[in-house]
Amino acid sequence: MSFRDWQPQYAAHGIATFPVAIMTNGKKPLVSHYPQFGIRASTEIVQKFPDATGIGFMVGKRSRLTVLDVDCPDDRVLVDALDRHGQTPIIVRTGSGNFQAWYRWNRESRQIRPFGEKPIDLLGGGYVVAPPSQGTKSNYEFIEGGLDKLDQLPCLRNIPTYTKGQAGAATRGAEPIIEGARNDTLFIHCMRAAHQCDDFDALLDLACTRNDEFLPPLLDDEVVKVATSAWKYTERGENRMGCPGVWFAANEANHLIRTDPDAFLLLSYLRANNRPARTFMIANGLERDLPLTRKRIAAARQRLTGPYVRLVRRASKYGGAALYRWNSKGGQN
């Protein structure tokens, strides 16, 4: 099997594919922006990855396919699923010995474990690895039907329909993210996660995983758009979300630097290390971290108390060091 051999066969049936690396610890597309691939982009990428042994495609709107992913090798679970949701002429055995049942897309979303404890996912978004990809244990294979049966696929029956306020298994135990909050939630998630990502593809993978938990998930194009925006902020050095730091208004900084450099230095240290709602100490022992003597720290602390911080517990023999909290002016936004 090679991507060069099978890409044209899927393209002939209107399915844009892309090369995938399949490893013992997971699967990863070998190209960027794969959710946006059309037949032309799929054909052009063959020249770069002709010998790739994994092939994938987007389910949902782009391929017009929905996959019932039976995440266990027990064929009794597959038979039960087919009896409940409808027979289909295309059944796939995955590289790990599990099953995929292919159906015609009917605007289903991507839902992880929507049928309670049954090890079944409903994949109406995201991507799947397809036959004859080389898996970790065996090759993906059609055990019933094949690409010539694509025009005979039925729609799924008896699937959950989520409305606002309803949660599936993917969000059990937490409030679901529903329409109206999905874009902002995903953007914040991407901005915070981007600092730990080596490249855009790693961030996009995290974005797709988070999107799986939304009810319903965003369309794939929208996920790419959100992840791209977050990555551009990060590349420009403008992404401060989830990254501790210090911020001053220019007039505030200039005033403190000119009139009270000790207070400016101490305030900068406190802002860098204490979140807005945190209770913290301003002990004289900070002389180990700052180029200030104990006397200068104590004097600067006194001048910051009131305008920037407030005392919430006095120092005592039994209670320990004094504790402070930010006034609204003092903490970071």
What does this molecule look like?
The protein has 333 residues and is of the alpha+beta class. The chain has three domains: 3-152; 169-235, no CATH class; 250-326, Arc Repressor Mutant, subunit A, CATH 1.10.10. The chain is 30% helix and 18% strand. The chain has nine helices and 15 strands. The chain has helices at 3-11, 39-45, 75-85, 182-193, 200-211, 220-235, 250-259, 261-273, 294-304, and strands spanning 17-23, 26-29, 55-58, 65-70, 91-93, 99-104, 110-111, 120-123, 127-130, 141-144, 177-178, 214-215, 279-280, 309-313, 323-326. Strands 7-8-4-6-5-10 form a six-stranded antiparallel β-sheet, with helices on one face. Strands 2-1-3-9 form a four-stranded antiparallel β-sheet. The chain has a three-stranded antiparallel β-sheet with strand order 13-15-14, with no helix packed on it. A hairpin with an 8-residue loop joins β7 and β8. α7 (250-259) crosses α8 (261-273) and α8 crosses α9. The longest helix has 16 residues, at 220-235. The radius of gyration is 28 Å and the shape is elongated.
Keywords summarizing the entry:
333 residues; Arc Repressor Mutant, subunit A; alpha+beta; six-stranded antiparallel sheet; four-stranded antiparallel sheet; 9 helices
Helix fraction by DSSP (H/I, runs of at least 4):
25-40%
Largest sheet composition: 6 strands, antiparallel
Biggest sheet strand line-up: 7-8-4-6-5-10
Stretches where pLDDT is under 50 for at least 5 consecutive residues are: 163-174
Task: Label the structural class.
Answer: alpha+beta
Number of domains: 3
The helix count comes to: 9
In angstroms, what separates the terminal alpha carbons?
A: 55 Å
Over the alpha carbons, how many angstroms does the gyration radius reach?
28 Å
